[in-house]
Amino acid sequence: MQTKALAPEYQGALTRMSVNASLTDVLAEGVRHLKRAERSGSQEEVARAGLAVAEAHRRLGQVAEADRAWKASYRAARSAGNTGAMAWALWSGGTLARQRGSLRLAFRLLGLAAEAGKRGGDVVARGYSLAGLAETGRIQGDYATVATLHEQLLAEARARGEARHTVWALEGIAQIHRNTGSLDSALEMFEEAAELAGAADDRRGRAWALRGIADIVSLRDGATARALGLLSEAEATCREMNLSSALAYNHKMRANVLFRAGRYAEAREVYKQALGEFRAMDEPRGEALASLGLVKARARLGRDRDATAADLDELRGRLDRIGLLNAREMVEKAYAELGVEPASPEHSVPAPADAPGAETASAGAGDGRR
Protein backbone atom coordinates (compact mmCIF):
# COMPACT_ATOMS: atom_id res chain seq x y z
CA MET A 1 0.00 0.00 0.00
CA GLN A 2 1.57 3.26 -1.12
CA THR A 3 1.36 6.26 1.21
CA LYS A 4 0.95 9.88 0.32
CA ALA A 5 4.23 11.42 -0.79
CA LEU A 6 6.33 12.94 1.98
CA ALA A 7 9.44 15.12 1.92
CA PRO A 8 11.85 13.67 4.53
CA GLU A 9 14.38 16.39 3.76
CA TYR A 10 12.03 18.87 5.46
CA GLN A 11 12.79 18.18 9.11
CA GLY A 12 12.36 19.61 12.58
CA ALA A 13 9.98 22.57 12.54
CA LEU A 14 9.58 22.10 8.77
CA THR A 15 8.29 18.51 8.95
CA ARG A 16 4.74 19.50 8.05
CA MET A 17 5.73 21.20 4.81
CA SER A 18 4.20 19.52 1.78
CA VAL A 19 6.30 17.81 -0.85
CA ASN A 20 4.42 20.08 -3.26
CA ALA A 21 5.21 23.34 -1.46
CA SER A 22 6.58 26.09 -3.65
CA LEU A 23 10.35 26.22 -3.27
CA THR A 24 10.24 29.94 -2.57
CA ASP A 25 7.91 29.17 0.36
CA VAL A 26 10.23 26.39 1.55
CA LEU A 27 13.19 28.75 1.40
CA ALA A 28 11.38 31.50 3.30
CA GLU A 29 10.24 29.09 6.03
CA GLY A 30 13.64 27.44 6.17
CA VAL A 31 15.45 30.74 6.63
CA ARG A 32 12.95 31.84 9.30
CA HIS A 33 13.37 28.63 11.31
CA LEU A 34 17.13 28.64 10.77
CA LYS A 35 17.41 32.08 12.35
CA ARG A 36 15.24 30.97 15.23
CA ALA A 37 17.38 27.86 15.75
CA GLU A 38 20.56 29.92 15.68
CA ARG A 39 19.15 32.21 18.36
CA SER A 40 18.16 29.24 20.50
CA GLY A 41 21.62 27.69 20.20
CA SER A 42 20.26 24.28 19.12
CA GLN A 43 22.78 22.94 16.62
CA GLU A 44 20.49 20.04 15.81
CA GLU A 45 17.71 22.40 14.75
CA VAL A 46 20.22 24.53 12.86
CA ALA A 47 21.20 21.42 10.90
CA ARG A 48 17.61 20.47 10.16
CA ALA A 49 16.48 23.94 9.06
CA GLY A 50 19.71 24.39 7.14
CA LEU A 51 19.02 21.24 5.16
CA ALA A 52 15.70 22.63 3.89
CA VAL A 53 17.41 25.89 3.01
CA ALA A 54 20.12 24.04 1.09
CA GLU A 55 17.60 21.95 -0.84
CA ALA A 56 15.42 24.93 -1.71
CA HIS A 57 18.44 26.83 -3.01
CA ARG A 58 19.62 23.81 -4.99
CA ARG A 59 16.29 23.18 -6.66
CA LEU A 60 15.94 26.87 -7.44
CA GLY A 61 19.28 26.70 -9.22
CA GLN A 62 21.05 28.92 -6.66
CA VAL A 63 24.12 26.75 -6.44
CA ALA A 64 26.50 29.01 -4.50
CA GLU A 65 23.90 29.53 -1.77
CA ALA A 66 23.10 25.80 -1.75
CA ASP A 67 26.78 24.96 -1.36
CA ARG A 68 27.16 27.23 1.66
CA ALA A 69 23.92 25.96 3.22
CA TRP A 70 24.61 22.21 3.06
CA LYS A 71 28.11 22.69 4.48
CA ALA A 72 26.72 24.80 7.34
CA SER A 73 24.08 22.14 7.98
CA TYR A 74 26.78 19.46 8.12
CA ARG A 75 28.91 21.47 10.55
CA ALA A 76 25.93 22.00 12.83
CA ALA A 77 24.99 18.30 12.68
CA ARG A 78 28.55 17.28 13.48
CA SER A 79 28.65 19.76 16.37
CA ALA A 80 25.43 18.24 17.70
CA GLY A 81 26.77 14.70 17.27
CA ASN A 82 23.79 13.76 15.10
CA THR A 83 25.05 11.25 12.55
CA GLY A 84 21.70 11.00 10.79
CA ALA A 85 21.62 14.77 10.23
CA MET A 86 25.19 14.58 8.97
CA ALA A 87 24.01 11.98 6.44
CA TRP A 88 21.26 14.24 5.16
CA ALA A 89 23.63 17.18 4.76
CA LEU A 90 26.10 14.99 2.84
CA TRP A 91 23.25 13.72 0.66
CA SER A 92 22.32 17.31 -0.17
CA GLY A 93 25.93 18.14 -0.98
CA GLY A 94 26.32 15.06 -3.15
CA THR A 95 23.12 15.82 -5.04
CA LEU A 96 24.31 19.37 -5.63
CA ALA A 97 27.66 18.07 -6.90
CA ARG A 98 25.85 15.84 -9.41
CA GLN A 99 23.68 18.75 -10.50
CA ARG A 100 26.82 20.80 -11.13
CA GLY A 101 28.41 18.03 -13.18
CA SER A 102 31.01 17.09 -10.54
CA LEU A 103 30.31 13.38 -10.70
CA ARG A 104 33.39 12.17 -8.82
CA LEU A 105 32.60 14.47 -5.91
CA ALA A 106 28.97 13.35 -6.05
CA PHE A 107 29.99 9.69 -5.73
CA ARG A 108 32.25 10.52 -2.79
CA LEU A 109 29.74 12.61 -0.84
CA LEU A 110 26.81 10.27 -1.48
CA GLY A 111 28.92 7.29 -0.43
CA LEU A 112 29.79 9.06 2.82
CA ALA A 113 26.12 9.93 3.27
CA ALA A 114 25.06 6.30 2.87
CA GLU A 115 27.65 5.22 5.45
CA ALA A 116 26.56 7.93 7.89
CA GLY A 117 22.91 7.00 7.42
CA LYS A 118 23.72 3.40 8.24
CA ARG A 119 25.78 4.36 11.33
CA GLY A 120 23.10 6.75 12.52
CA GLY A 121 20.26 4.28 12.00
CA ASP A 122 18.48 6.61 9.55
CA VAL A 123 17.05 4.16 7.02
CA VAL A 124 15.54 6.90 4.86
CA ALA A 125 18.76 8.94 4.67
CA ARG A 126 20.66 5.79 3.70
CA GLY A 127 18.03 4.92 1.09
CA TYR A 128 18.09 8.40 -0.44
CA SER A 129 21.90 8.32 -0.51
CA LEU A 130 22.00 4.94 -2.23
CA ALA A 131 19.41 6.26 -4.67
CA GLY A 132 21.68 9.23 -5.29
CA LEU A 133 24.57 6.90 -6.06
CA ALA A 134 22.36 4.92 -8.43
CA GLU A 135 21.16 8.06 -10.21
CA THR A 136 24.69 9.41 -10.52
CA GLY A 137 25.84 6.17 -12.13
CA ARG A 138 22.85 6.19 -14.44
CA ILE A 139 23.49 9.77 -15.52
CA GLN A 140 27.12 8.87 -16.14
CA GLY A 141 25.92 6.10 -18.41
CA ASP A 142 27.12 3.16 -16.31
CA TYR A 143 23.87 1.24 -16.68
CA ALA A 144 25.26 -2.24 -16.06
CA THR A 145 26.57 -1.23 -12.65
CA VAL A 146 23.53 0.63 -11.33
CA ALA A 147 20.60 -1.29 -12.85
CA THR A 148 20.61 -3.87 -10.04
CA LEU A 149 20.79 -1.15 -7.39
CA HIS A 150 17.81 0.61 -8.97
CA GLU A 151 15.82 -2.64 -8.84
CA GLN A 152 16.83 -3.24 -5.22
CA LEU A 153 15.76 0.26 -4.21
CA LEU A 154 12.47 -0.13 -6.05
CA ALA A 155 11.73 -3.36 -4.16
CA GLU A 156 12.58 -1.72 -0.81
CA ALA A 157 10.43 1.32 -1.58
CA ARG A 158 7.46 -0.83 -2.57
CA ALA A 159 7.85 -2.95 0.59
CA ARG A 160 7.82 0.15 2.79
CA GLY A 161 5.03 1.81 0.84
CA GLU A 162 7.15 4.90 0.15
CA ALA A 163 5.36 6.40 -2.83
CA ARG A 164 7.86 9.13 -3.64
CA HIS A 165 10.80 6.74 -3.59
CA THR A 166 8.88 4.15 -5.61
CA VAL A 167 8.15 6.77 -8.27
CA TRP A 168 11.81 7.81 -8.36
CA ALA A 169 13.02 4.22 -8.78
CA LEU A 170 10.49 3.46 -11.51
CA GLU A 171 11.55 6.55 -13.41
CA GLY A 172 15.23 5.66 -13.07
CA ILE A 173 14.74 2.12 -14.36
CA ALA A 174 12.51 3.44 -17.14
CA GLN A 175 15.27 5.83 -18.19
CA ILE A 176 17.78 2.98 -18.36
CA HIS A 177 15.36 0.97 -20.51
CA ARG A 178 14.77 3.97 -22.75
CA ASN A 179 18.48 4.62 -23.22
CA THR A 180 19.17 0.99 -24.07
CA GLY A 181 16.36 0.76 -26.59
CA SER A 182 13.61 -1.02 -24.62
CA LEU A 183 11.03 1.65 -25.35
CA ASP A 184 7.89 -0.39 -24.64
CA SER A 185 8.94 -1.35 -21.11
CA ALA A 186 10.23 2.17 -20.51
CA LEU A 187 6.85 3.60 -21.41
CA GLU A 188 5.05 1.15 -19.10
CA MET A 189 7.25 2.19 -16.19
CA PHE A 190 6.90 5.90 -16.84
CA GLU A 191 3.12 5.47 -17.02
CA GLU A 192 3.07 3.52 -13.75
CA ALA A 193 5.22 6.21 -12.13
CA ALA A 194 2.85 8.93 -13.33
CA GLU A 195 -0.16 7.03 -11.96
CA LEU A 196 1.48 6.38 -8.58
CA ALA A 197 2.69 9.95 -8.30
CA GLY A 198 -0.78 11.25 -9.05
CA ALA A 199 -2.35 8.98 -6.42
CA ALA A 200 0.28 10.00 -3.85
CA ASP A 201 -0.02 13.71 -4.67
CA ASP A 202 3.63 13.85 -5.70
CA ARG A 203 3.45 16.61 -8.28
CA ARG A 204 7.20 16.81 -8.82
CA GLY A 205 7.43 13.07 -9.47
CA ARG A 206 4.48 13.21 -11.84
CA ALA A 207 6.03 16.08 -13.79
CA TRP A 208 9.20 14.04 -14.36
CA ALA A 209 7.14 10.99 -15.35
CA LEU A 210 5.15 13.02 -17.88
CA ARG A 211 8.43 14.20 -19.38
CA GLY A 212 9.51 10.57 -19.75
CA ILE A 213 6.22 9.57 -21.38
CA ALA A 214 6.49 12.51 -23.78
CA ASP A 215 9.98 11.41 -24.77
CA ILE A 216 8.88 7.85 -25.57
CA VAL A 217 5.70 8.66 -27.48
CA SER A 218 7.63 11.18 -29.55
CA LEU A 219 10.56 8.85 -30.23
CA ARG A 220 8.62 5.62 -30.72
CA ASP A 221 5.34 6.79 -32.20
CA GLY A 222 6.07 10.21 -33.67
CA ALA A 223 3.16 11.51 -31.56
CA THR A 224 4.32 15.12 -31.51
CA ALA A 225 1.07 16.74 -30.43
CA ARG A 226 0.57 14.31 -27.55
CA ALA A 227 4.17 14.75 -26.40
CA LEU A 228 3.92 18.53 -26.42
CA GLY A 229 0.66 18.36 -24.48
CA LEU A 230 2.24 16.19 -21.78
CA LEU A 231 5.19 18.57 -21.54
CA SER A 232 2.84 21.54 -21.19
CA GLU A 233 1.08 19.84 -18.29
CA ALA A 234 4.41 19.10 -16.62
CA GLU A 235 5.65 22.64 -17.27
CA ALA A 236 2.67 24.09 -15.41
CA THR A 237 3.67 22.09 -12.32
CA CYS A 238 7.31 23.16 -12.64
CA ARG A 239 6.30 26.80 -12.77
CA GLU A 240 3.85 26.56 -9.88
CA MET A 241 6.45 24.89 -7.66
CA ASN A 242 9.38 26.96 -8.99
CA LEU A 243 11.27 23.82 -10.07
CA SER A 244 14.00 25.59 -12.03
CA SER A 245 16.06 22.53 -12.97
CA ALA A 246 13.02 20.43 -13.87
CA LEU A 247 11.70 23.29 -16.00
CA ALA A 248 14.97 23.56 -17.92
CA TYR A 249 14.97 19.82 -18.61
CA ASN A 250 11.32 20.07 -19.65
CA HIS A 251 12.24 22.73 -22.19
CA LYS A 252 15.15 20.66 -23.46
CA MET A 253 12.76 17.75 -24.00
CA ARG A 254 10.30 20.04 -25.80
CA ALA A 255 13.13 21.02 -28.14
CA ASN A 256 13.94 17.32 -28.69
CA VAL A 257 10.33 16.63 -29.64
CA LEU A 258 10.28 19.54 -32.08
CA PHE A 259 13.60 18.44 -33.58
CA ARG A 260 12.31 14.90 -34.17
CA ALA A 261 9.28 16.37 -35.92
CA GLY A 262 11.53 18.29 -38.30
CA ARG A 263 10.50 21.63 -36.80
CA TYR A 264 14.11 22.77 -36.60
CA ALA A 265 13.61 26.51 -36.29
CA GLU A 266 11.26 26.04 -33.32
CA ALA A 267 13.62 23.49 -31.79
CA ARG A 268 16.54 25.91 -32.12
CA GLU A 269 14.72 28.61 -30.16
CA VAL A 270 13.66 26.24 -27.37
CA TYR A 271 17.18 24.78 -27.13
CA LYS A 272 18.43 28.37 -26.73
CA GLN A 273 15.89 28.92 -23.96
CA ALA A 274 16.92 25.75 -22.12
CA LEU A 275 20.60 26.60 -22.57
CA GLY A 276 20.08 29.99 -20.93
CA GLU A 277 18.22 28.37 -18.04
CA PHE A 278 20.97 25.82 -17.45
CA ARG A 279 23.64 28.52 -17.56
CA ALA A 280 21.74 30.63 -15.07
CA MET A 281 21.81 27.79 -12.54
CA ASP A 282 25.38 26.68 -13.33
CA GLU A 283 24.34 23.19 -14.45
CA PRO A 284 27.07 22.16 -16.93
CA ARG A 285 25.60 18.78 -17.82
CA GLY A 286 22.28 20.22 -18.89
CA GLU A 287 24.08 23.10 -20.58
CA ALA A 288 26.24 20.74 -22.64
CA LEU A 289 23.29 18.55 -23.65
CA ALA A 290 21.18 21.55 -24.65
CA SER A 291 24.18 22.84 -26.60
CA LEU A 292 24.40 19.56 -28.49
CA GLY A 293 20.75 19.81 -29.48
CA LEU A 294 21.30 23.42 -30.55
CA VAL A 295 24.28 22.44 -32.73
CA LYS A 296 22.18 19.79 -34.45
CA ALA A 297 19.24 22.15 -35.00
CA ARG A 298 21.51 24.85 -36.45
CA ALA A 299 23.14 22.29 -38.73
CA ARG A 300 19.74 21.24 -40.07
CA LEU A 301 19.00 24.90 -40.75
CA GLY A 302 22.13 25.27 -42.88
CA ARG A 303 24.98 26.16 -40.53
CA ASP A 304 28.43 25.87 -42.10
CA ARG A 305 29.76 22.29 -41.91
CA ASP A 306 33.20 23.29 -40.63
CA ALA A 307 31.64 25.38 -37.87
CA THR A 308 29.35 22.48 -36.96
CA ALA A 309 32.35 20.13 -36.75
CA ALA A 310 34.23 22.58 -34.52
CA ASP A 311 31.18 22.89 -32.26
CA LEU A 312 30.97 19.10 -31.93
CA ASP A 313 34.70 18.86 -31.16
CA GLU A 314 34.31 21.37 -28.34
CA LEU A 315 31.23 19.65 -27.00
CA ARG A 316 32.78 16.22 -26.95
CA GLY A 317 35.69 17.55 -24.92
CA ARG A 318 33.32 19.29 -22.53
CA LEU A 319 31.18 16.19 -22.00
CA ASP A 320 34.27 14.04 -21.49
CA ARG A 321 35.47 16.43 -18.76
CA ILE A 322 32.13 16.11 -16.99
CA GLY A 323 32.66 12.34 -16.97
CA LEU A 324 29.70 11.03 -18.97
CA LEU A 325 30.71 7.60 -20.23
CA ASN A 326 28.35 7.79 -23.20
CA ALA A 327 29.40 11.31 -24.24
CA ARG A 328 31.79 10.11 -26.96
CA GLU A 329 29.12 7.87 -28.46
CA MET A 330 26.53 10.65 -28.38
CA VAL A 331 28.73 13.16 -30.17
CA GLU A 332 30.08 10.59 -32.64
CA LYS A 333 26.53 9.78 -33.62
CA ALA A 334 25.94 13.50 -34.20
CA TYR A 335 29.01 13.68 -36.49
CA ALA A 336 27.62 10.80 -38.54
CA GLU A 337 24.04 12.07 -38.48
CA LEU A 338 25.07 15.53 -39.69
CA GLY A 339 27.59 14.22 -42.20
CA VAL A 340 30.61 16.13 -40.88
CA GLU A 341 34.16 15.16 -39.97
CA PRO A 342 36.00 16.25 -36.82
CA ALA A 343 37.62 19.65 -37.27
CA SER A 344 40.82 18.68 -35.42
CA PRO A 345 43.02 15.58 -35.87
CA GLU A 346 43.00 14.87 -32.13
CA HIS A 347 39.24 14.41 -32.37
CA SER A 348 39.39 11.60 -34.94
CA VAL A 349 36.25 9.50 -34.75
CA PRO A 350 35.84 5.76 -35.38
CA ALA A 351 32.70 4.51 -37.03
CA PRO A 352 29.87 4.90 -34.50
CA ALA A 353 28.13 1.82 -33.19
CA ASP A 354 24.38 1.57 -33.44
CA ALA A 355 23.06 2.58 -30.04
CA PRO A 356 19.31 2.19 -29.53
CA GLY A 357 17.62 5.38 -28.46
CA ALA A 358 20.76 7.49 -28.66
CA GLU A 359 19.94 9.48 -31.76
CA THR A 360 18.73 12.44 -29.72
CA ALA A 361 21.67 12.85 -27.43
CA SER A 362 20.03 15.39 -25.22
CA ALA A 363 16.92 13.31 -24.71
CA GLY A 364 17.62 10.94 -21.88
CA ALA A 365 20.94 11.51 -20.20
CA GLY A 366 19.52 12.19 -16.80
CA ASP A 367 17.70 14.89 -14.89
CA GLY A 368 18.60 15.77 -11.31
CA ARG A 369 15.31 15.09 -9.64
CA ARG A 370 16.70 14.37 -6.22
From TrEMBL:
- Where do the record's region annotations for Disordered lie? 338-370
Q: Which GO terms describe its cellular component?
A: cytoplasm
Q: Name one Pfam family in it.
A: TPR_12
Primary place of residence?
Answer: cytoplasm
Q: Does the keyword Cytoplasm apply?
A: yes
Name the InterPro entries for this protein. Bac_ResReg_Asp_Phosphatase (IPR051476), TPR-like_helical_dom_sf (IPR011990), TPR_rpt (IPR019734)
Which controlled-vocabulary keywords does the entry list? Cytoplasm, Repeat, TPR repeat
The protein's location, in the record's own words, is: Cytoplasm
The record's family statement is: Belongs to the Rap family.
Protein name from the UniProt record: MalT-like TPR region domain-containing protein
Where does this protein come from, organism-wise? Streptomyces violaceoruber
